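Long-time lurker. I teach an intro course on protein structure, and each term I like to show students one example going from raw sequence to a predicted 3D structure in token notation. This year I'd like something fresh instead of my usual example. Would anyone be willing to generate the tokens for the chain below so I can use it in lecture? Attribution to the forum is fine with me.
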Amino acid sequence: MTLTAEARALDLAQTYLETIREGSLDAPGVTRASYGPGERLSHRLAREAAEGLGLEVHVDPIGTLFMTLPGADRSLPAGMIGSHADSVPHGGNFDGAAGVAMGLAVAARLRHLGRRLPRDLTVLAIRAEEMVWFPANYLGSRAAFGLLSPEAPDTLRRSDTGRTLADHMAEEGFEPDFIRQGRASLSAERIAWFLEPHIEQGPVLVEAGLPAAIVTGIRGSLRHRNCRAIGQDAHAGGAPRRSRRDAVIAAARLVAGLDEFWTAEEAAGTDLVCTIGEFFTDATRHAPTRVPGEVRFTLDIRSEDVAALHRAEAWLRGAAAEAKARHGVEVDFGPALHVPPALMDQRLRAALGAAAAEAGVATMAMASGGGHDCATFAGQGVASAMLFIRNDGGSHNPQEAMEMDDFAAAFRIAAGAVERFG
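-- Reply from a regular --
Happy to contribute to a lecture. Here you go:
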């Protein structure tokens, strides 16, 4: 029996995902380090699949893989679809790679149907998105746009080896000088639109019983990595309440207050998430009989709404003043890392919605809490969109569990939308 164009495309995607999993197994999950063997395998297999489809294949000097299905007017800016192919250590198989597989499947369907889009369609496999390897957000996509500092190849070191980005790039056959010289292989003027399919990294679609979601935007963030509540050590039995400068009480009150602030914002319809990922006293000094003089903690506050992030920042300043007045405890939040939100293009979102309706696939709108290469494209003024695929078990762990039926549903949306994007 002859397979349909859709079935052949989905078979290609499934084969790609299964093969890269087998080649990058690192119990209990998979490991595809940025500029390492697993990422190399993923790119090689994507290239082989693209060449099997007759796509034009090009690799830029930093390793970005471009796989292009020619369009009717090759002078037009290209449409692009894809994601990254690296993973976290001992992670799941689908974070990033599902987007590369989706891009290949969409191109395969068009090829098997003999259809040409008005413009080129380029499937991207992007390098080095996972920040766990090198301490830089969206390293691969930012490098492709020429946004990294010239010093990055020689100052960024990979977490597992301690060796520089330049060393690892050269080892993989790429050119660190491309970054040092501020060159770029991607230009916003030559990109009509960018679509990044990606597994959802939380439980929302599982809870909603839906296979896919149309992303409204990628949340911006306000992050403080080195927060300190500084009081004074005291004897647990000898110091009365009135004379204590208890850092734990002050920090705990601040955390509870932040939760109340979050609750109120959420009740008002604000998109907001707040996380205290670390909260601890000094293990070399703390004791059951000592009033703690210092607490260290982290803050990660995210929202699609810039105004909400500003309100959170103002609330933190007020909370620090209250800690000083009420408990005699200084709160030093340390350096702040501000990452602006990246809102998705309304026209592309509408096209995804229309394609979902035509395919009979129920979806929902939702924000992306995690960062993605799509934020780099949007930040450069490229019309950008994201499509989430239901995934049980969360992300960045071996329990990632995207079902191919859900991938197929999202594929029908992506395929229909790409033809609508124009």
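Some talking points for your students: The chain has two domains: 5-218+341-421, 220-339. The mean pLDDT is 97.
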